[in-house]
From TrEMBL:
Keyword Translocase: no
Lineage, top ranks: Bacteria, Pseudomonadati, Pseudomonadota, Betaproteobacteria, Burkholderiales
Pathway, per record: Purine metabolism; AMP biosynthesis via salvage pathway; AMP from adenine: step 1/1
Gene3D superfamilies noted in UniProt: 3.40.50.2020
Boundaries of every Phosphoribosyltransferase domain copy: 46-154
Catalytic activity: AMP + diphosphate = 5-phospho-alpha-D-ribose 1-diphosphate + adenine
Family affiliation: Belongs to the purine/pyrimidine phosphoribosyltransferase family.
Name this polypeptide is given: Adenine phosphoribosyltransferase
Lineage top rank: taxon: Bacteria
Length: 180
């Protein structure tokens, strides 16, 4: 049997020239459409984190919500959504991050985590790392400790995982795609 990471990587669809020419979009929706593949994926994360001292799982808008909420449920932990600006109904704190052309902001509820809580930060993919780094900063501003930044896919050529490590975060992904 092939390794879980190879099996999962083989199920990721590559869409050429989307959303713009030259981009190789790594589409994770086939992972979630097939029940066996989705279970293998979630089990891979659960087995990694089940014995770690984690209080909360935080997922980044939007695909990080899918992975993060299922992971939180399986680990019997709470889930924290990190949303795009203006999407949360209660008091929030925000963090800006750079985009290719301009900036964006992510927010979290001001009471989403408490000082000393250990949080696993989850997204579907690490590209430039800007969104995940902004999410980590939000959690840290609330006093939480980000145990690890995790995702299904790493795109190492874009430097995001290295940027996260340089920012003091441990990083783990299921698989990586060279070239973007």
């Amino acid at each position: 049997m092939i390794l879980d990471s190879d099996y999962i990587k083989a199920q990721i669809r590559t869409v050429r020239d989307w959303p713009q020419p030259g981009v190789m979009f790594r589409d994770i929706t086939p992972l979630m459409q097939d029940p066996k593949t989705f279970r293998v994926l979630i089990d891979r994360f659960v087995h990694r984190y089940m014995d770690q001292n984690i209080d909360l799982v935080a997922g980044i808008d939007a695909r990080g919500f899918i992975l993060g909420s299922v992971l939180a449920y399986n680990l019997n932990r709470g889930f924290v959504p990190i949303r795009k600006k203006g999407k949360l109904p209660f008091d929030t704190i925000g963090e800006d991050y750079a985009l290719e052309y301009g900036t964006a902001t992510v927010e979290v509820h001001a009471d989403a985590a408490r000082a000393g809580q250990r949080v696993l930060l989850v997204d579907d993919l690490i590209a430039t790392g800007g969104t995940m780094l902004a999410g980590a900063r939000l959690l840290q501003r609330l006093g939480a400790e980000v145990v690890e930044a995790t995702a299904i896919v790493d795109l190492p050529d874009l430097g995001g995982s290295e940027r996260l490590r340089a920012g003091g975060l441990a990083v783990w992904t299921v698989c990586a795609f060279e070239g973007h």
